[in-house]
Amino acid sequence: xxxxxxxxxxxxxxxxxxxxxxxxxxxxxxxxxxxxxxxxxxxxxxxxxxxxxxxxxxxxxxxxxxxxxxxxxxxxxxxxxxxxxxxxxxxxxxxxxxxxxxxxxxxxxxxxxxxxxxxxxxxxxxxxxxxxxxxxxxxxxxxxxxxxxxxxxxxxxxxxxxxxxxxxxxxxxxxxxxxxxxxxxxxxxxxxxxxxxxxxxxxxxxxxxxxxxxxxxxxxxxxxxxxxxxxxxxxxxxxxxxxxxxxxxxxxxxxxxxxxxxxxxxxxxxxxxxxxxxxxxxxxxxxxx
Length: 289
What we know:
Elements: H1 10-36, E1 39-42, E2 61-68, E3 74-89, E4 94-108, E5 115-131, E6 134-147, H2 149-154, E7 165-179, E8 182-195, E9 202-213, E10 221-233, E11 240-251, E12 256-267, E13 277-288
Antiparallel strand pairs: 1-3, 2-3, 2-13, 3-4, 4-5, 5-6, 6-7, 7-8, 8-9, 9-10, 10-11, 11-12, 12-13
């Protein structure tokens, strides 16, 4: 009597083999990293990827008076920070994991009630690899945007016309200190979850920062800065948004204060207002530690 063996699902077998290979590769990678680690720091003292000062989406402590061309005057406030959680030190480099979050809000100060127009909330988990003057950042970035109740009431917006505005991104950025006074950076992000939904998930940003010292050998350091950030999103037809910020930075032992002037042109970077364009001047100050 001839026994017939059941045929195996070749696709399932291949998939299982691929999973095994992937697990082996990751295990070897982590073993290599573990063998190369010289020390591990828990709650390292500071961030390693300095927030781009001209990128209006990054959490910061700042406030500014905004004058949109052809529109009413506004006030904007940003609250947020970044903290290191774990740092893995190698021989000539290190890898750091952290958490970053905050909010940025816009108010219509032309009204007696100073109506809140919109507020964006951000949460991100950055992984930074640092080797000398070069930094590579990989992070998950979440943004949730909320239209203010005052704005809804003032513009007679009905509930059916309100939509949820959320994005979840994977972002890759690299920063390089070309000189002591010049930093350049560039990045790509992919939005794997967007509400309202769209099939255009890609985006790019580029920027630079120039610092010129104005004082030497004094307790309070003072320097001039000029920075620019350029963004282009596929969902907006790759139409660019450009922000230029310049001013004076005063650096103490632990904290810094910046006084700045800003020029912006392009799509508004608040997620709920992103389909609108704006040109504005702004004047304000920011703190960093």
